Amino acid sequence: MKTISKGNRILVFLAAALMISAYFTPLWQISLWAPQYPEGLNMKIWIDQLSGDVNIINGVNHYIGMKHIGEEMFPEFSYLIYVFGFIIAVGFIAALTGKKFLLHGYFLLITFLGIGVIIDMHLWGYDYGHNLNSTAAIKVPGMAYQPPLIGYKELLNFLAYSGPDVGGWILMGSALLTILAIFFDWRSNRKKTALT
Amino acid sequence: MKKQFILVVGAVAALALNPGCKPKTAESAIAGDAASKVYVAPGEHDEFYNIVSGGFNGQMSVVGLPSGRVLKILPVFSVNPENGYGFSEESKPMLNTSNGFVPWDDLHHIAISQTKAEHDARWAFGNGNNTPRIARVDLTSFKTVEIIEIPNSAGNHSSPFITENTEYVVAGTRFSVPTGSDAKRDVPIASYKENFKGFISFIGVNQETGDMNLSFQIEAPPFNFDLARAGKNKSHGWFFFSTYNTEMAHTLLEVNASQKDKDFIMAVNWKKAEEYVKAGEGEKRPARYAHNKWNESTHMAESKILEEVLVLDPKILKDIVYFIPCPKSPHGTDTDPTGEYIIGSGKLAAIIPVFSFTKMLAAIQKQDFEGNIDGMPILKYESVLHGEVQKPGLGPLHTEFDGKGNAYTSMFVSSEIVKWNIETLQVLDRVPTFYSVGHLSIPGGPTGKPHGKYMVAYNKITKDRYLPTGPELAHSAQLYDITGDKMQLLLDFPTIGEPHYAESFPASLIKDRQVKFYPLEENNHPAALKGIADARVEKKGNEIHIYLTSIRSNFRPDNIEGVEVGNEVFFHMTNLEQDWDVPHGLAIKNANTAELLVMPGETATLKWIPNRPGIFPFYCTDFCSALHQEMQGYVRVSPKGSNLPLTFTTGE
Predict the structure, then answer these.
(1) Residue range B43-509, CATH number
(2) Separation between Cα atoms, residue B452 and residue B405, nearest integer Å
(3) Are B198 and B181 in contact, with CB atoms under 8 Å apart?
(4) Which one, out of A147, B19, B362, B641, has a CA that is 20 to 30 A from the CA of B117?
C-alpha cells in the first residue's frame, strides 16, 4: 500500500477539519437589489437551512408567480449533513492512515460534491426561474427569472447576485489544501522516480 | 504548477468578491446647480401653488414649488383640532353624512377647476374615498366650503376628475355594491355578478358659485372603477374611466382580479347622457345622501339630506358607454393636452397602450365591435390603438404631460419616471424615484395647457431618505426639472399624510385674490357681535350663551359667574380685528373638545358642558400681541341647583 508524507497528512487533516465549518457557517448567498431596496435583500443558504430576508424575497417574487422559497423546497437539507460527514470522515481516515488511495478518494469525493452542488443549484435555479404560477399577477412575455449561478444578473427591476458565503470560501480553502497535498505528493513521487 | 493553482483560485475569488463587478444601478447624485433652482430667497414667493392630497389624513396640503415648503394644512374630511374644524358648532355639519357625523376620510385626488381646458384655480376638489364624498375648497379662502355625499357608491376612488370647463366632477365607485332598498342590499356576497352594480356619478358644478349637485348617475357593470380623466379639446364631451376586476371576482382579488389579459377603459359620452337627461330618460330612484354647504356670510355650515337620484341605464340608453380593451388592470387613464390620446397604464402590463380618440370615434361609427357587455359595445383593441410604448418600465401607474408632446409615466415597481414621446412612442429618458413612485404631477399637467418646468414624484416608500423617525415615516417627494431633454433631480422633500394625486398652478392665478379678513359689517352670523358693547351672557333654560368679543388683548366678558354643572355653555366668539393675520384662539380648561381659531371678522362657537364645580380659566391660544399672555378670563362653575345669579364683567 502506498502512503503519503507526514506533511501531506497534516494538509489533509486540516482540509477535513476545515470542512466541519460547513455545519456552522452559511455556504452560499443570494442577494437582490432594486431601486426600492438599495440596501439589498440577502438570503443565506446553510447546510440544512435558510436564513436572511427569505420572507421579503418571497413577498416580492410572488407577484411574478415564483414559488415560495422554504426549507421544504430543498430535500438536500435532509441529507447533505450526512454527505459532508462521510466525506470529512474519509479525509480524517486518509490523514490518520496516510493511505494514498484514501487521499485520492477524498479528493474525488469533494470534486464530485462540488460538481454535484453546481448542477443541483443550476437545476433548482432553472426551475425557480421558469416554473411560474400561471395565475401570477404580473406576466412579462418571454421573461424568465433564473438567478445567476455565480456573479451578477439583472432581472427586471432587480439586480441579482449569487456567490459563496463564509462557509463556501472555507470549503474552497479546504479543497485547495487537498489539491496542494495531491500536488506535493505527485512532485515528491516524480523526484523519487527521477532519483532512482 | 502550484503558482498556477493559486492564480486560478485567486482569480475566482477576486471575481466573486470584487465590488467593481457589480453593475451600476440608478444613480441618485444631484448634478449641476440644483440648489439654486429650488432656492426661494427669504421674503420671496414660490412660483407655483401645489395642492396635494393628504391621503389618510383626510386633508390637503398647500405646498410651494419649487421650494417644497408646506404653506398650509387644509382640513377637508378630517376634523382639525388645530383650528376647531369639525369641533366648532358651525363646522360640524360639514362632516355630516347620511350615516351621521364622520370625522375622517381618505382623500386621494385633487382636481383644480378649469375653464377652456386651462386651470382657472377658483376651486380645488377632493374625493373622500371611504365614505364616498366630494369636497370643494375655495382657493380664495383655502377653506372647505362644500361637501356632497355620493349615494350608491363605495370607495370613491375614481374621483373627483373634472371636465374642461368644470361642468362636472365625477365619482366612479371602486367597490361595486348592491344598491336600492334594505332588502336589495342585504344579499350574499357570492351573488356579486347578479346583484352588485358599479355606479358612476356626474356631479354638476355651478359655473358662477361652484355649488355642486348630483346631476345623474350611470349604472355600469360591477367592475372596480379605478381612475378617470375627462376628454379635453377635441375629446371634450367624453370621459374615460379605467376599470379592473372585470373578472368580477369577489375574493382574493390580488389573484382573481389579475387573470384577464385585458380589462377596459370605459368611455362615457356625457354629452349624450345629458341629452337623455334632458329628454327625461333617466329614472328617479330613492337614495339618501348629505349635501353640506359652508356659508361665508353666516360663517356656518348647513347640512341637508337629499333623497333622490337620477339614474341612467346604459344597457337601454344607447351610445353612452363603450369599452376599450386595455391590458392588465389599468390604473391611471390620462388624456393628453390635445385630447387626441388616451393613455391607459396597465399596472401589471409590460407595455403602455396609447389610444386614439379619432380612431375610437371611427370605430364607433363603423360599429367595429368585438362584442358587448349587456348590450354596451366593446371596441376592438387594434382599431382604437395609436400604438404601444415598448419596454417602458415596470408597474406603470399615472401619466402627466409637459405640453411639448411628451408624456411622463410613473413606474411603481421599477421606481422610476419614464419620459416618452406621445406621437412616436419612443422612450426618451428615465429617472429613478426614491422609492416606488405613485402619482406624479406637472404644473398644469392634466390640462390642455401644461406649464411644464417642474415635475414632482409622490413616493410610496421612504426608507432611508431622511433622518429616521421610528417605524412611521414621512412620505417622500422629489422635484425634477423637466425643461431640458434629460429630467434632472432637484430636491427631495417630506410631505404630510400620504399624498396621492396633486395639481399645481401658477401662484399668479390666485395670490392677489386672497381673503385677508371678513368685514364685520358683512358678518351675518346670528350670534355675531359688531363691537365690545354687545358682549353679554344670556341664559335660555339649561343653555348659557356667552357672546364673547376678542380683540388685542382682551376677551369681553372675561369673568362669568352663575354657571352650573351640567349647563350647556356656548361661547360665541367674534374676532373683532379687521386686519390680516390676527386670528384669536379660545381654549377652556378641561373642555372635552378642541380649541377655536377664529379669523378676523368671523364668529365661531365652542360648546362646553362643565362637569364639576370650580374656576375654569380660558385664554387666547394664538400669540396675538405683546399682551397675549394677558388675554384670558375665568368661568366660575357652581354645583347644580346653586342658583347663583348669572353675572359677567370686564374690567371692574
Answers:
(1) 2.130.10.10
(2) 11
(3) no
(4) B362
Q: What is the DSSP string of B421-450?
A: ETTT--EEEEEE-TT-EEEEE-TTTTSSS-
Q: How far apart are CA B621 and CA B583, in angstroms?
A: 9
C-alpha cell at B445: 399637467
- Dihedral sign for Cα atoms in the order A71, A73, A79, A80: negative
CA nearest to B477, candidates B420, B430, B438: B438
CATH architecture of B520-649: Sandwich (2.60)
What is the distance in angstroms between the Cα of A136 and the nearest Cα belonging to chain B? 7
The low-confidence residues of chain A, meaning pLDDT below 50, are none
Residues pairing with B137 in the sheet: B124, B144
Ranges of each domain in chain B: 43-509, 520-649
Distances (CA, A) of B150 to B17, B125, B216, B289, B311: 60, 14, 11, 6, 13
Model pTM score: 0.91
Contact A66, A158 (CB under 8 A): no
**R_g of chain B, CA atoms, integer Å:** 28
Question: A172-188 pLDDT, tens per residue?
Answer: 999 999 999 999 999 98
CB proximity list for A118: less than 8 A, separation 6 or greater: A149
Which residues from B are below 8 Å from A39, CB to CB?
Answer: 464
User: pLDDT-derived band of residue B1, with 50, 70 and 90 as boundaries?
Assistant: very low
What average pLDDT is seen over chain B? 94
Residue with cell 455565480: A150
The DSSP code for A67 is P
Q: Who's near B377: CB < 8 A, 6+ residues apart?
A: B322, B323, B364, B367, B369, B371
Taking CB atoms and an 8 Å cutoff, what residues of chain A touch B413?
Answer: 63, 138, 156-157
DSSP B628: G
Evaluate whether ipTM surpasses 0.85.
Answer: no
Per DSSP, helices labelled H in B205-289 are 253-256, 270-278
Which chain B residue is nearest to residue A181, measuring alpha carbons?
B2
The whole-angstrom separation of Cα B359 and Cα B615 is 76
Strand partners, B59: B75
Q: Is any Cβ of chain A less than 8 angstroms from the Cβ of B473?
A: no
pLDDT, tens digit (0-9, with 9 covering 90-100), for B546-592: 999 999 999 999 999 999 999 999 999 999 999 999 999 999 999 99
